[in-house]
Amino acid sequence: MKYSYQYPHPSVTVDCVVFTVQNNFLKLMLIQRGAEPFIGEWALPGGFVRIDESIESAASRELKEETGIENIYLEQLYTFGKVDRDPRERVISVAYYALVSSEEQIIAADTDAASAKWFPVDELPRLAFDHKYIIETAYRRLQGKLSYQPIGFELLPPKFALSQLQSLYEIILNKKLDKRNFRKKIQKTGLLADTNETQKGVSHRAAKLYTFNKEKYDILAKNGYYFEI
Amino acid sequence: MKYSYQYPHPSVTVDCVVFTVQNNFLKLMLIQRGAEPFIGEWALPGGFVRIDESIESAASRELKEETGIENIYLEQLYTFGKVDRDPRERVISVAYYALVSSEEQIIAADTDAASAKWFPVDELPRLAFDHKYIIETAYRRLQGKLSYQPIGFELLPPKFALSQLQSLYEIILNKKLDKRNFRKKIQKTGLLADTNETQKGVSHRAAKLYTFNKEKYDILAKNGYYFEI
DNA sequence: ACAAAAGTGTTTGTTGTACACCCATGC
DNA sequence: GCATGGGTGTACAACAAACACTTTTGT
Fold this sequence. Notes:
alpha+beta, Nucleoside Triphosphate Pyrophosphohydrolase, 2 domains, 5 helices, about 25% strand, elongated, DNA-binding
């Protein structure tokens, strides 16, 4: 008990809602708790913010430590601070949401594979703390942002077919989209660059692959451009 | 030094960016610091989150204590947690933004009037900590939300004229809007209720006064309706 | 009667929506 | 040659944008 203060201080943690799209399902990663409280229950990856790291660094670090995932899209979601959200002590949690490409979904080898798992958002187990509520908030935010920020690409491999992109939108927004209109709209942004490649190993006509031109988007965005789909 | 922990804990504060519209300017409230660090400089109202109150309660409480303002629109903005944002110790700040009607702008009598003041957003003094950055974030958020959430009404008295509402949009978005198109659009939402009153004491044709039908909006919003202006 | 702001419609261009068939490829 | 998804255009409706004059009221 080396650290003393004149007034009580809360603990500050980060919790990460990591989304991916896998086999036509939107999924998120949970880990099984190995310690009290809520031992054995599923929870979001996360942990304490250290005194010498920024909150975002803490989120990246915990993600890497607990799931092996690194270098992904990570954005602050909301800060949850109800007095009794942790039964032990006062804990304020800064939640982040993260997006992982379907290619990098593999939980790294240095992780206890039994304890980290992808769950479809509609088939979540019982969750520790207020994590159910955090996930609902993250899901709503993802749905909202998808339509007016180019974040869908973060969930795809660097080279992707238009049908993959459309399917991703349909899965997350939970509604069918018109193929021709979707293509028209996304092409009209001018943000997709044609690679001269096509899909490999499919048993039908191979689709053209595109990449998202992030540099072009960043320049446009700086000048007031608004992505919308 | 009665409170001891095994690991160092950060302090958690709230900071509030309180907006109002006054004399055709978007303004926000600052208080002059009476203590170190940054003594004498201007800063956002705010303070420490107590161990037994939620973060939002802390924001309301500090606002009332420091500025006399209460019962206003208050929404979490972002959590700022760079390691060195406070020169004394590690402080994580959960920022809120608040909207005050132009009628309630008066800084309450129980406040040291010399120390709290409204500043136009484009004429801010030098600010303590990273408060300049927090304000920029809040301003961008306000501009963004104004177009797709009915928050403009929070900055007006309960009964208002359409020209007041338009002027508010023009001031915050910083661009001229077409009067006829604006009126058409806002009337078509069906969310304004006609009071049978008109402006008093104006030296020209008196405008009709309307109220915003929040109940109706809440019901529509629950069923997927999206406000847009 | 004049100053000041309130109030009101129409036209034109742009964007969204609905919709069905041929094409390329692997087996 | 057939099954599978890839790729394409047009017509119609809805919405956004541009634009100017009359009305009401107080002084």
